[in-house]
Amino acid sequence: MRTYKWIWFGHILTCLLSLALALSFATVSLARQSGVELQSSLADYLNYLPIVMRQYFQGSIGILDPSFYGGGRVTTDFFNFDDNGNALAIQPDGKIVVSGSTDTGADRDFALARYNPDGSLDTSFDNDGRVTTDIFGGSDDIGHAIVLQPDGKIIVVGSSVTSTSYEFSMVRYNPNGSPETIFAIYGFMAYGYAVALQMDGKIVVAGSAYNGSNHDFALGRFNPDGSLDTSFDGDGKVTTNFGINDAGNAVVLLPDGKIVVAGQTGLTGTDFALARYNPNGSLDNTFDIDGKVTTDFGSVDVGYGAVVQADGKVVVAGYSTIDPWDVFALARYNPDGSLDTSFDGDGRVAADFGGPDDRGHDVILQPDGKILVAGQTDSITDYNFALARFNPNGSLDISFDHDGRVITDINGNTDMGMAIALQPDGRIVMVGIARLGIYFDFALTRYK
Q1: Nearest residue to 101 via CA among 117, 112, 90, 89
Q2: 3-class DSSP state for residue 94?
Q3: 91 and 47: one domain?
Q4: Which of 104, 161, 181, 432 has its CA 20 to 30 A from that of 343?
Q5: Which residues pair with 312 in a beta bridge?
């Protein structure tokens, strides 16, 4: 009996030593890939070990949340035609508000849906969780961006066809989903792509506007009642020309009241483009001398999302065409507009999911400073939701689904992730579109 006991003890000891050795190697590997250089002290290993233990014993971070309605995936149809989910916001109570557009069979209208925190449609929102708004009657209206007011009202910004052209358009909804007011027309051939809400309740909208030969960055600031704020460049409207065919796709507000707009500039070959404005609408010449910055990655570079860090640095995410595939592209800028070389060595990061067409559409920060980018990846046969998480130094975070990247197929067909947000409990919600049959629907996923 003693012999057997010692044999079993030897087996257990061997297993424990093997596990300790595996965890040690995994700890060193994970730390290095996360940008951390461990020293030889036991304290360093013990500080980093919980991350590895969580991977070994609690499953990967970045997996679909099965408690979310539909097993982690939700789709919503409006009129049995194409529905596009373009943006989302999370209410303080955890409910999810998604904005976009729907094809009614006659034209396209603003579309808005609200979901309970578990992903089910919130039937207290216009009785069935869904609202559509026809702004001009019989013309196309597309909602591109959303922001929540402190009083619970919802502002959706986009573009609408008038009798002559596209214009900036906005609708403000009451918390129950009823439209409170439709307001704000910008000017000839103007597209509204992004929105931010100032502390004083004024609404900042960014996009592009036609200058007679091509498009420029367009920025408008509106009073809470929807009227143009004439303290902003005299008439509430500002355009900025980078060269040719410029579009502002994202807007962020800085603590000092300055405004950063990110997007792209160029015709066949494009670059990331950023402009920073003073609170009065003038270009801020402390930002790269003239208030404008462009960044080249590859042959085609488009910035779609932007976020400001607590230290004032701005992260822009989108995609770049590099030899010859499209990849997620990120750039981080110092407050003076220069590229932040502490971010992957030169301020620029490219991440590939393995397919020929990977595009980042939105970016947010986690409370720990890690960077989440949502978009799409081409699996050769179709497109899928794509989600990547980066460490503050720009490296992929391998504690997130083992390699920093997650791919989600919604329904075995084309799926494109457009926007991302965090719920109060830290779970990640992504919204976009999914093809079901021959038409697209709103699509949501949640990850834990």
Answers
A1: 112
A2: coil
A3: no
A4: 432
A5: none
